Amino acid sequence: MVAAIAALAAAATVVVVALSFALYAAVRDLIGPAWGAASVAGAAALVAVILAFMLTRKARPPKPVPGDDQNLASRLIDLARERPLVALGAVAAAATVVLRNPRVLSAVVGAFFASRAAAPPKGKGKR
Prior knowledge:
This protein has two domains: 1-59; 62-115, no CATH class. The radius of gyration is 23 Å and the shape is extended. The model has no long low-confidence stretch (mean pLDDT 78). The relative contact order is 0.05. It has 127 residues and is mainly alpha-helical. It is built from five helices and no strands.
C-alpha cells in the first residue's frame, strides 16, 4: 500500500514537472524567459491555493469547550466560513507582519496553543 502511494506521488510529481516545462515553453517566446518563469510560479501558486481551499473546506473544527462561548480558534474558523475573501486578506496581512518581525509569530503561536486551565472536575456534592 505504501509503495503504491509512493508510486502515485512520484507519477504526480513527474506530471507537474512536465506541465511546468510545457507552460514555460509555451509562454517563453511570447513574454520572455523571466516572465515565463514567473507565469509557471504563478500557476503553481494558483494550484496550491485551490488545493488548500478544497482541503480546508472539508476540515471540521473541534467542538468548543463548554463554558467558552467563542474561543479564538472557533472565531477564526467562523470568519473563514462566512467571509473567505476577508479571511484570505487577513492571512496575507498576517504573513506580511510575520515576515517583517518573526517574534510576532512566536507570540501568536504561543497564544494560540496555550493550554487553558482545566475546569475543576464536577464531582458529587458534599453529603
